[in-house]
Design a protein that fits this description.
Length: about 160
């Protein structure tokens, strides 16, 4: 599948280009199975409008639909609405899954690089003034930013 058009794609064309390479120009856009649409379009007609500007036609099972006629415009609009609906469903399911995981106590994020005892020891060494932050980072095998965060957390407590 490919889409023909202007050399500098805009909006939906850039999103479509991720899924449909532009290497083999064609005047028809064919689909014989379910098509992967871009994740989100600002309005249901955006895809249809962009493809209409580029004189693209839709070929589904041998029937050719032109987005400038009423039936073709309806098909392009319905397909983009379905794509938007599917993207909304995916976001909703993700949020629901994260809420369930959080309620069960399984949504915790990234594990800390240092255990509480290691962090306390790091802060003690820093307060003693015997090591620089770079040396502490090397000793504990962490980044300097981790050392600075541990020091900042200890100052707050």
């Amino acid at each position: 599948m490919s889409i023909t058009g202007s050399p500098e794609p805009t909006g939906t064309a850039r999103a479509c280009a991720k899924h449909w390479p532009r290497s083999a120009p064609a005047t028809f856009w064919s689909s014989t199975s379910s098509t992967v649409w871009p994740a989100r379009s600002p309005t249901p007609g955006t895809i249809a409008d962009e493809l209409t500007k580029r004189h693209v036609k839709l070929n589904i099972g041998g029937s050719v639909y032109d987005p400038t006629d009423p039936i073709g415009k309806l098909l392009f609009t319905v397909l983009s609405m379905i794509a938007e609906f599917e993207a909304d469903l995916a976001r909703m399911r993700t949020r629901e899954g994260m809420a369930i995981a959080k309620a069960k106590g399984r949504l915790r994020g990234k594990k800390p690089k240092l255990s509480p005892s290691q962090e306390a020891h790091l802060v003690e060494l820093h307060q003693a003034g015997r090591h620089t932050t770079t040396e502490l980072a090397e000793l504990f095998n962490v980044a300097r930013s981790t050392v600075y965060r541990a020091i900042r957390r200890a100052a707050v407590e």
